[in-house]
Amino acid sequence: MGAWGPAIFSDDTAADVRGDYRELLEDQVSDEEATRRVIAEYERLDQDEAHVLWLALAAAQHQVGRLDEDVKRRAVGVIDSEVGLELWAETGPKELAKRKAALSRLREQLTGPQPARQGAGQAPGAGVRLNGVKPSLTRARTGVRGLAWGRRENQCGGGPLLLERELRRAERALRDRLARQPEEQHRRAEHQTGRDQGHHGVAENVADLQP
């Protein structure tokens, strides 16, 4: 389980779902298309994680007043059927109770009055003010280490939140760098071989000139 806490977004996959959804909105993708793309991206999750997609997407949509009815239905179904709670039961009764409370709050949010529709830049956590905490390293579900901030705060107060977008960018940059390493090493080896051969040729030429 890629979760570090009982809150909905204290989970690698959930944080990725919300981050991808917000990026699509920022790119001016329509609500329907953004929903479709996110579902298509995460619909092949393992059985243990499949339910996280619906919880995270519904919560992310609720935050910006764009809750899709089908997504809402799927998320409420996950909550009511207690899918995924067996994993939390293994962590102990206290953590299980916290997770149930988080799910109960989410259910109330999804089934209650929805907030006014917001732009992507108005989503909770957007335009945050960093409070001077050093960056730390965290491991995302891809297994690649990337940068994250241990804490950030906005006008509503501070809290431990993952800067999903920056983390994914760091991951992509690191993956690209790792992917290029064999090619770069090969080029360096060829360059070094060429230099060695050149030096060897010069040495032979000098030797030929010697009496």
In short:
The protein has 211 residues and is mainly alpha-helical. It is 59% helix and 8% strand. A two-stranded antiparallel ribbon has the order 1-2.
What this model shows, in words?
By secondary structure, the protein is mainly alpha-helical. The chain has two domains: about 1-115, no CATH class; about 165-210. The protein has helices at about 10-25, 30-40, 50-65, 70-80, 85-90, 95-110, 165-210; strands at about 135-140, 145-150, 150-155, 155-160. The radius of gyration is 25 Å and the shape is extended. The relative contact order is 0.10.
What descriptive keywords fit this protein?
extended; 211 residues; two-stranded antiparallel ribbon; mainly alpha; 7 helices
Summarize the main sheet: 2 strands, antiparallel
With strands numbered from the N-terminus, the spatial order across the biggest sheet is 1-2
- The helix/strand series, from N terminus to C terminus, equals HHHHHHEEEEH
* Secondary structure category: mainly alpha
* Rg calc: 25 Å
Instruction: Please tell me what the overall shape is.
Output: extended
* Contiguous uncertain segments of 5+ residues: 125-162
Proportion of beta-strand residues = 5-15%
Helix fraction bin: 55-70%
Q: Compute the number of strand runs.
A: 4
- N→C terminal distance: 76 Å
Q: pLDDT average, as an integer?
A: 74
Structural domains: how many = 2
Question: Helical stretch count?
Answer: 7
What is the strand and helix layout of this fold?
Blueprint: H1 12-26, H2 31-42, H3 50-63, H4 69-81, H5 85-89, H6 93-111, E1 135-139, E2 145-149, E3 152-154, E4 157-159, H7 164-209
Antiparallel strand pairs: 1-2, 3-4
Helix pairs in contact: 1-2, 1-3, 3-4, 4-6
